[in-house]
Write a structure and sequence with these properties.
Length: about 290
C-alpha cells in the first residue's frame, strides 16, 4: 500500500503536540503548547474545537471518569470538557523555569508526564513523573534535557522514552513492572543519528513497532522492536512532533507539527497543522484511559 499524507486541520499552530485518540468518542485530542490550547478533532464531521486553558500545556490523557488530565506549566490539572474549566491537582516540581512536555498512559492507566526547561537554558533539569490512580505524583526518571517519546509496548512490559536534545537524540527502552509502575534496566533502543530527524513524540503499533516523529527531519520513522528502521514516511513539514494511531479501525496515523522558530515557511506553509497518514497497512493500540 502507498501511504497518503493529508493536512486535515490547517491550524498552523505554534507548537502542535500531545495527540491522543479517544476510542469511545472517536475523536482526537491534541494540543498547541505555545498557543495554550486544547483541541478536539472529530474526523467524521471534520470539526476541530479548541479551548484556551491560559498557560502552556504539554501533554494530556483521557480520564476514565470523563474529562482530561493535563500536565501544564504550573502543574497537573484536571479538565472538564463540558465547562472548559481546569482544576489544580499538584505541582510536583515548584520550578518556575520548567514546564511539562511529553506524556502518555501505561496500559494499566497510570499517567506519565515529563518536564523540561522553559527558559531556553540547556540543562538536564527534566524529569519523568508517574501519576498514580490516587493522584499522587512520583519523580521516577530524572536527567533529561527535553523529555519526549513516551510510549508502551502492546503488552505494556516495555516503556520507551527519549530526549530530543541535539547532542543526545536517543530513544531508550526499559523493562516495565506493570504491577508497581516502575521501569527497570534502561538501555539504548534507537540512536536517531541513523536518520534525518531527532526523536520527538512517539507511539507504538499492534506489531510492537515504535513510530517516531522525526523533528527537524521532515519524516516519521517506524522502528522494529529490535531497534531497526523499518519504514520512513516523508512529511510535508520539517518538524512533525507527535504521531498517534486513530480512526474507527486505528489505521490512521495522526501527526501534529510545529511552526515556532521556523524562519521561512514558504516551502512548508502548513507547518504547525494536523496531518493524517492513511494506507500504512498497520493498526495502532488503544490508549488506556487514566484511572485516577
Amino acid at each position: 500500500m502507498t501511504p497518503n499524507v493529508e493536512c486535515i486541520v490547517d491550524s498552523r499552530s505554534e507548537l502542535g503536540e500531545g495527540a491522543v485518540w479517544d476510542v469511545r468518542e472517536n475523536c482526537l485530542w491534541w494540543l498547541d503548547i505555545n498557543g495554550e490550547k486544547v483541541h478536539r478533532f472529530d474526523p467524521e464531521t471534520g470539526k476541530n474545537t479548541d479551548w484556551d486553558v491560559g498557560e502552556r500545556v504539554g501533554c494530556l490523557a483521557i480520564r476514565e471518569q470523563d474529562g482530561l488530565i493535563l500536565a501544564m506549566k504550573s502543574g497537573i490539572y484536571t479538565f472538564d470538557t463540558e465547562s472548559g474549566r481546569t482544576t489544580f491537582v499538584i505541582d510536583p516540581e515548584g520550578k518556575p523555569d520548567n514546564r511539562f512536555n511529553d506524556g502518555t498512559t501505561d496500559r494499566q492507566g497510570r499517567f506519565w508526564a515529563g518536564t523540561m526547561r522553559d527558559d531556553g537554558v540547556l540543562a538536564t533539569d527534566g524529569t519523568f513523573y508517574r501519576v498514580d490512580f490516587d493522584l499522587t505524583v512520583t519523580a521516577v526518571l530524572p536527567g533529561f534535557f527535553t523529555t519526549n517519546g513516551s510510549a508502551f509496548s502492546p503488552d505494556g512490559k516495555t516503556m520507551y522514552v527519549s530526549d530530543s536534545n541535539a547532542d543526545v537524540r536517543t530513544i531508550w527502552g526499559m523493562d516495565y513492572d506493570t504491577d508497581t509502575g516502575n521501569p527497570l534496566n534502561r538501555r539504548v533502543f534507537f540512536d536517531s543519528r541513523e536518520v534525518a530527524g531527532r526523536p520527538d513524540g512517539g507511539t507504538v503499533d499492534a506489531d510492537g513497532c515504535y513510530w517516531m516523529a522525526g523533528v527537524g527531519g521532515w519524516q516519521v520513522v517506524r522502528i522494529t522492536p529490535e531497534g531497526k528502521v523499518d519504514r520512513i514516511i516523508e512529511m510535508p513539514v520539517e518538524k512533525p512532533t507527535k504521531p498517534m494511531f486513530g480512526g474507527p479501525n486505528l489505521d490512521t496515523l495522526y501527526v501534529t507539527s510545529l511552526k515556532a522558530g521556523l524562519p521561512d515557511l514558504s516551502n512548508q506553509p502548513q507547518a504547525g497543522s494536523l496531518f493524517a497518514i492513511t494506507g500504512l497497512g498497520v493498526t495502532g493500540v488503544p490508549e488506556a484511559r487514566f484511572q485516577g
